[in-house]
Design brief:
homooctamer; 248 residues; Rossmann fold; five-stranded parallel beta sheet; 18% strand
Chain lengths: 248, 248, 248, 248, 248, 248, 248, 248
């Protein structure tokens, strides 16, 4: 519904001023003292709000988790610490925490998983970022195939898995150090590749900058890149693409 | 067909050694003196080979254009110069050239355009990159909606077009200078946003690096980024996503 | 008038749908084939639209200049070339061009100039950027005091002019190379200092990056920075500040 | 009073040598063993000296706080630690400390607050920097409207507050990650926008560098930028601008 | 054996499908839950797999060490911590740890050391990286001459050792700060120089970036560079070169 | 012969002072007005001096070419322009010029080529740098296998050539853009890989910096890197390695 | 004479107001329309003003040259073009121009040259910068020893000249590429070394940034660095040091 | 004594082989297991060896301190920790430690201090680096005037001390943040200014990089720069310059 249609409905009395105002933005978030929960978000984008836990004060984190949990019946947070897990568990006993992916979420996850994406890593050190991506995608209802430790310096490991990887609607390629995995994948498959540079490496890896540059400069087609260590962002956009494929 | 299946067919005699060898990689490109045309590419990825014209010698460019044209019945090149247009026209009279997008292609383009993507730009100076993206997507069979000059410093221009933009399966957001357009778009729509930083700007824009960093750091969801000025790459991946949506 | 008030007026019939739509953004720009002239801009921000000429095609530039000139009765462009001057002069004979500031504008400038700002430069090579700032401010109705070539390596030149500079409501400090002028000015005056790094220099000046960093890190108070060589931006914000001081 | 006037008064005997010397700089600071307190500062710039606490030794910090407190009757420090609070409280019992803004100041703050500025943040993690800005401005006598968590990825939150924000004489826009908030604000309001990049973010945010570049490259008008996390500097220059508006 | 030969043997029945599949890559690594041990590596490259210990979880590290130790009869890890030493010692009592080089390996090293390489350092702080290089080379069967603390600021120290250094088949030159040692060595010897920048330094050394740039830009011939602090990589390639010289 | 031995021979009269002085460095170069030709170089390093032509004045270039040609009977220059070819041809008629590699050398090259190195490129645009490497190696007596256009985005092209590449004593891997070729090669072969980043690319390739970082961070073993576009340096060190292998 | 003394003399009538004002800064430069010639400079610093010609308009350059020539009897400019030479020669026939150093100066230079500095370069391409340094020092009365093409990759060339170099009061070390010359010199001599990075190089030399970093990080003592290609600055400070040594 | 002279004396028997060898470099350092103490250093450069304590192991540090103390009768170390002080005091009871400058040295300092240098700082946070510079210079026999907290944002503090500063033979200017102090000093004095950037600052100061760039780009004359926080290096070169002035 665009602006003009909204205005016509207001003129016609089909829509009240407060309804129209809400649609136009005034009320589509919930004012908290320190934050504006984006409650219109699910309506607007098809995804519930996810909490970025890192750096939030204990008090703020608790309030946000409880508010979302009360409203949505579930809650999902990224980059959480073990301390934050303890904190939230006192209020929401069913909360669970995965120390690898650092995801803090309510546990009853029996959603139907649809379509298929593949999450690949170059090495074992890239797994925490990959798990953030995979579990995010699963939270949003996507079936995930994990293909870990298939970096390009032992190219046969990757090639032997190509058929399996190729069945996905979208591939998330996670790699640190020189970050060459997405380039090779891009030449082997039909579907889009979301590249995630990681901060794995040392010296001139510059905390992931080198891998980021590699992926941005890829000469392969069908590759787009998210921020360093941004597993969540990759899981999110891969879900969007997968939903298009399964017709959501 | 994976490796094991190929081997079984060789064992059974259903596949000759040379056929198998070809499938396994030996012959899926055509050896030229100076290049290896990737003739298996369309089979492997669903897209015909596109020629990156910039920096190619006259002799090489001509040979590659003719070879592809003879094989595929059409040919499509990016980053071509007016000089290269003149050069190729002598051999392939039906070639056409768009000085804005710098695309050099054979003209008979009456393909059915399917699905829908939107190509948005922040300013008018971003149009050449946007056209490279749009025409690439059209070459691969995608319907493209163009929404130009809707940068965030006049946010009302963008908001009034949101409904129209939201109908796309994928949005390409092209912006130079501070590159904030994808962040705002990401919060307004359901579909994935492919962000293209451009080298438009001066001073601390550092030829597009600043816009690239903005897009990579976007706090909005559903955004992935391609190289600076890489309209072609954006058009390619947007087509992949659009094909998934229309069921190709 | 906020959203709710607009909706109430639509409901009451005091405002038509098309009027409301215009206010809400739909019509506050003028659609051209390639650009969206921001005709609601003066209303919204108090400043008419200014044309950034660099990189615009001849055809686009001409159309934009004529459209604004016809609508506003005056037009003002920055970063214009001598070629663009020739081009526009054929259509708008009263246009004038200053090769130093590279400003292209209609000539009858007898506006009342109000308040006072000072534009200072460290060296003579910074004058083109300073003139872009000064003439922009004058175009928007600000009285400008020019104080050029008072760089910190001959500090007595600056100190002897301090009394004069101190009478301004806002100071624009333009400097390349090490860019130290704003720091010294910041400690000598009461009013805000807008710092403009320039690309003047060589070697490790990195086209103005070094001066930009100096200014951003200034230990003096009351300093804020615009982009390298962005005289226009400095003239604009200085005018905003000056208007506040004179009560506009 | 400029140099010549001072000299004339010395010649005439209206000014003693020591008075003139003081005016000309010799005595306008107070020599401490390790520092030169800038006691002429309030006279010269209209603002009392503020203490940057971070990195100061306990002994130096205490001496400076006591000296200023004894001279001015109040004292205000930024970037203080909890330890420094304990330290100073032993000597100045009325001192108070805000762990969010990290401001350490004497408590009796019943100054009249004049004019109006708005302090906006993109997210909740930007609040500490915003509070440093807001409380600095309040210390210098400015009325502050706080508008937090209105980042551009949920643009409706910002637009619904635009009317309120627009009443300010100056806006401070605080944002980390991609830092796009000032660009959108710049297009919506009449008044100057002071942009403060924050170190909030991860990966390619490079501790605020990315946000800084975004803001410096803003294509919106009326924006100038201070250092990463420099809430104090933003509060200071916003106060200067606000004073001009209210006629101080 | 190339692809065609493998296929012919499959056709002829000399090779089973599973054997061929293994050769073509399917089985040349051992699937662990979290990693793919590259057991075909020694066959393919002539070097056993080395474990990069840093950042591995205790559980993963132990499993990998035991698996390699059981399979190969020896195991060698780099960048190990004292904690990891304790951990592994519980399972593999003969393991030894060198806190300088941070190498964790099984002890019975009585391999014949062949050929000769020289490992040189500019200062004493570069020794840990040099030892990683030297011990890696020794693990792979190379005789190593250590020449430490011969940096260019006391050039006589280096020149007096030139005859000795010149007997090597390959030189590893390890240096931090300005990293000039490889340039001088390159002009004095016949053999290839592998340059290793270290993170030793402060200020503008930028954790080794400055030394890396120095070495990459060397105007001397016969120099190639590995990553900052990458002693292992230097020891590896020096061994490859030494093996060529001794006819392995 | 080390310093002490030289001194003993001087003491014994077996060596004259001028001979010793020459050995110790005094006379091992030839003083020209503007340069010091390193005539002891071949003795010291086993390689004749090569001329870096770029940026040399016509007068200097001619003098240097003639002096080396007269002394050595042959001369070899890199990064020469067509203009420099014309210039030198007037004096040395047998000179030849290759516009692709930009190598300017005397023509009678019937040296025996020994051993084997492979020069691989990722794309066709990398060929000029590869030819500089290959022809340098050939000038110094190395047999070169050229394997061009085998970039990782079409990995089958590379795999089908692996057997051929593996016969080399050393591989030079030349790649621009994301520069991933050396990583994949490093995992496939036994011999050292010299990686050469090229300035081929655009946007965030930063004139080869991105490829350089990729190669320096390679997680594959047996890779060392030379400067961007430094084909000469790669050909030189590959020759050193090849000579070790063939027993020179 | 400090401020207090000046004021006392004014009080006593020994100094007129205008004299005092001049001393305090008011008149120690000459106001031109566009510049402030620093005529008090020679008095204040012991050096006459030098003209940086690059980027100056023809009109400004001519005026400045004539004014200085008329006042001082001589004039000296750096970074001049051949065009500027032609321009000035029309007005000042005795002007001379050196295309290597790009210095434009009046010719009658028979000053006594005192003391001794050495100007060393790593290669022949560094000579233009070295000549700017040498001729600047000579203009200010310093005797200069030139030692060119003694880079560290052929260390014997440098060592054989050490005795000669050591006689200088100050050494200017000019080097591009990896810039290691100052480090080696710093360990061989007693006197201060002024290091000048040059933009000579390619690839990762980043127009001299790499050499600059090398020099700043030098582990040798007695080295300080000026800007890339800043021969003038090096010649200036070397002259200051030489004057101290000869007792000026 | 140059090489030829040494050889002549050997031939004549005036010099023994071992003496000559020592002079030529063989024995001018003392081999320790892990380091080569540069005992010829004082002879060669006029300065005793100074110990850079940071990062040295306890065992190495102790051995080096004792060896130098035994040989020279005094010892001087920079960047020492309190722990290292405790460590050394057990062996050398007269050792003293200054926690501000982090200098660890033997105490009986009654050397005659000659000449005069001035050490200036912009702020109080720069004092630790300044003290490293000042105490280094004093250790080498230089009289030091300290002028602290005279940064350019309160320019009158600096100007009132100019007369005093001007008496020095060399000035060390220490500044962090924007680092503008050397530029202003350079225009006020005759003598050379050694600029020391410090890591004082936050945000875009990038640990001193910004101040370093400011100083390298200074438009003032007579300025050369050392590494970030390198007080020692500044004290060393200032001493060299001061010695030239006093005729050492």
């Amino acid at each position: 519904m665009n602006i003009e249609e909204i205005l016509l409905e207001v003129q016609d009395g089909r829509l009240s001023v407060s309804e129209a105002s809400a649609i136009l933005g005034k009320e589509s978030y919930r004012e908290m003292e320190f934050a504006k929960l984006d409650t219109g978000r699910k309506e607007r984008t098809g995804f519930a709000e996810v909490v970025y836990c890192s750096g939030k004060s204990d008090e703020h984190l608790l309030k946000i988790f409880k508010r979302i949990y009360d409203t949505e019946g579930e809650v999902f947070g990224t980059r959480a610490s073990a301390h934050q897990f303890e904190l939230v568990r006192n209020e929401i006993p069913e909360i669970t925490y995965d120390p690898v992916s650092r995801i803090l979420k309510t546990g009853r996850r029996e959603k139907e998983l649809r379509g298929r994406i593949a999450v690949c890593t170059a090495g074992t050190s890239d797994i925490p970022v990959a798990e953030e991506a995979a579990q995010t995608a699963e939270y949003f209802g996507t079936f995930v195939e994990r293909v870990y430790d298939v970096g390009v310096s032992g190219i046969h490991r990757l090639i032997s898995r190509t058929a399996q990887i190729s069945e996905a609607n979208c591939i998330i390629a996670v790699a640190g150090m020189e970050g060459a995995l997405p380039s090779v994948l891009g030449g082997l498959v039909h579907c889009p590749v979301i590249a995630v540079p990681t901060s794995v490496g040392y010296g001139a890896s510059f905390q992931g900058l080198s891998a980021l540059l590699t992926m941005i400069n890829s000469c392969a087609n069908g590759i787009a890149v998210v921020n360093i260590d941004n597993g969540y962002g990759a899981g999110y956009i891969a879900t969007q693409i997968n939903r298009l494929a399964v017709g959501d």
